[in-house]
Amino acid sequence: MVQTAFDESERRKWAGQADAYAASFAKLCAYPVPGLLDTAGVREGVRVLDVGTGTGTAAAVACDRGAKVTAVDAEPGMVAQAALAAPEADVQLAALPCLPFPDDEFDAVVGNFVLNHVGRPREALRELRRVTRPGGRIAVTIWAVPTAAGQALLGRAVQAAGVTRPAHLPALAPEDDFPRTEQGFAALLGEAGLTDVLCDTLTWDHRTTLEEWWSGPAAGVATIGQIVTSQDPVVVAEIKDHFESLCAEFAGPGGVLALPHAALMAHGQA
Fold first, then answer.
1. 85 vs 88: CA distance, rounded Å
2. Which helix (DSSP H) or strand (DSSP E) does residue 260 occupy?
3. pLDDT tens profile 148-178
4. How far apart are CA 94 and CA 98, in angstroms?
5. Is 0.90 topped by the overall pTM?
6. Which of 12, 113, 124, 201 has most Cβ atoms within 10 angstroms of its Cβ?
């Protein structure tokens, strides 16, 4: 299948970012993993695919549960990190919406925030359904919209500096997008042919430091990082100044930030 402009942008965006991601946003993204594996029925002996494994957090926890784990990611650096984090897993380089597996290969499939990074989410979900045996479970997460206050922090700093999204970072095509709500996400799974679909909102406070939270965008991680690093040094410094001022809203004892986040977790049966 031909990659969309959004897919191509995502490949460029994440190239070489595994270490910077591991030091910043990976800790945030780890929060839903236990619940994600629970809803997918991941336990001893289950054949599970972790798609978009990133640094391998879900794959490692699934291995700890005694599951037979396969994990894939589109970025070679992430594959290397995941292989270290989950040495018992079969970790491969692969990208949605075309996976190198036969039909009905897995008992369960999980995708932790991977659907945020694909150009055709419906096709991606159909592919996950294809590789899941009939009756198997698929569980996926995305970020909710509107964003929670902690998640919006970096974007507010960018906006306060008068910066807009650069043209080289395309948004998802309107015909491929969907409402990032419980109802919208559940409907997306239904359109892909999943049954018994449920979707819940997860909320939590991510605890971090000002330095750690800034390190991600400063290194160019994710869309927000690409926006920041595409600016000239004067503007980057202005964004950071706004960021530091806004952090006061979330600072607690010892300067630890408590950043409210919200995600959607949906699951269904193949």
1. 9
2. strand 257-269
3. 999 999 999 999 999 999 988 999 999 999 9
4. 8
5. yes
6. 124
Q: How far is CA 218 from the centre of its chain?
A: 19
Percent composition of the chain: helix, strand, coil (DSSP 3-state, to 5): 45, 25, 35
Query: pLDDT band for position 255 (50/70/90)?
Result: confident
Q: What is the C-alpha separation between 54 and 47, in angstroms, rounded?
A: 19
List the structure tokens of 90.
């079969």
Looking up tokens 């359904």 gives 129
Q: What confidence tier does 1 reach under pLDDT thresholds 50, 70, 90? A: low
User: What type of residue sits at position 137?
Assistant: R
- Token digits for 205? 């406070």
What residues form DSSP beta bridges with 72? 51, 92
**Alpha-carbon distances of 119 from 9, 10, 28, 85, 95, rounded to whole Å:** 10, 9, 23, 28, 11
Query: Residues in the chain, how many?
Result: 270
What is the layout of strands, in order, in the sheet containing 47-51? 90-93, 68-73, 47-51, 106-112, 132-143, 257-269, 195-208
Encoding tokens for residue 161? 């500096």
